[in-house]
């Protein structure tokens, strides 16, 4: 007695209209039945093929398996056609590999083009933009404090905080206002800041040109972790797989 579930091209069958037993089926040409036929020819037995009524591969419930695995566990059938292995199933039945296992892949929509209105901010990541914002403010505060110290020590003029802050932004945009520094330490900070702005602006422009030349696309889903990291994404599968090894694996 052979129990099976419809799983083309590995197993395919039709119900026998001349037999009162509803589970009795006739196999069509498929890979599993070719293997079973070769076994029967060499070992001299006649396979009696039956379909699992609920197309259930087997769930573990209350110490017993349902479906095909349950029939094998209760010794109601001798062997089955293609079925997946799980740690629980390996405890109650033996498996025989007759061909390479089927490969399951994740299918999703093709990568879409990224929004064009975000092209200006895409060259840098969010962390880099935040670091630049913090850096400009910190640099402006440092220059302003040095100017205040210079005013206290040498009674010189002092630049306003807004002036130093706007100078930092202007240098990043390659449109710096007049140099507000009045001391040697302030001029040194201005010089290093201009070098830093040159590096940042050069990197931004080259990355922007690259992004505009080859428009970016949304990332693909290649692993289960990628699927988990996607917000508001759900996975789906054929309903009859919900009682199989695929559901347990997911």
Automatic annotation (TrEMBL):
Stretches that traverse the bilayer: 128-146, 190-210
A Pfam family per the record: Lig_chan
Localisation: Cell membrane
Domain Ionotropic glutamate receptor C-terminal: 126-231
A molecular-function term among this protein's GO annotations: ligand-gated monoatomic ion channel activity
UniProt membrane topology term: Multi-pass membrane protein
Entry-linked InterPro entries: Insect_Ionotropic_Sensory_Rcpt, Iontro_rcpt_C
Annotated signal sequence range: none
Any one GO BP annotation for this protein: detection of stimulus involved in sensory perception
GO CC terms in record: plasma membrane
Keywords noted in UniProt: Cell membrane, Glycoprotein, Membrane, Receptor, Transmembrane, Transmembrane helix
Main subcellular localisation: membrane
Family: Belongs to the glutamate-gated ion channel (TC 1.A.10.1) family.
Protein name: Variant Ionotropic Glutamate Receptor
Protein species of origin: Coenobita clypeatus
């Amino acid at each position: 007695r052979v129990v099976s579930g419809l799983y083309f091209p590995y197993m395919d069958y039709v119900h026998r209209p001349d037999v009162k037993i509803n589970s009795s089926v006739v196999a069509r040409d498929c890979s599993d039945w070719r293997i079973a036929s070769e076994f029967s020819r060499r070992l001299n037995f006649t396979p009696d093929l039956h379909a699992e009524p609920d197309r259930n591969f087997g769930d573990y419930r209350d110490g017993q398996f349902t479906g095909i695995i349950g029939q094998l566990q209760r010794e109601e059938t001798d062997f089955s056609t293609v079925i997946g292995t799980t740690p629980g199933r390996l405890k109650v039945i033996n498996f025989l590999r007759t061909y390479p296992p089927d490969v399951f892949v994740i299918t999703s929509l093709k990568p879409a083009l990224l929004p064009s209105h975000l092209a200006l901010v895409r060259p840098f990541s969010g962390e880099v933009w935040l670091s630049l914002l913090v850096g400009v403010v910190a640099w402006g505060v440092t220059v302003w404090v040095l100017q205040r110290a210079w005013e206290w020590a040498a009674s010189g003029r002092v630049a306003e905080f807004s002036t130093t802050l706007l100078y930092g932004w202007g240098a990043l945009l390659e449109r710096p206002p007049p140099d507000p520094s009045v001391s040697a330490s302030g001029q040194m900070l201005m010089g290093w800041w201009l070098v830093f702005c040159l590096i940042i602006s050069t990197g931004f422009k080259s990355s922007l040109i690259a992004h505009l030349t080859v428009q970016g696309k949304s990332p693909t889903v290649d692993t289960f972790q990628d699927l988990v990291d996607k917000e508001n994404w759900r996975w789906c599968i054929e309903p009859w797989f919900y009682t199989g090894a695929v559901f347990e694996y997911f």
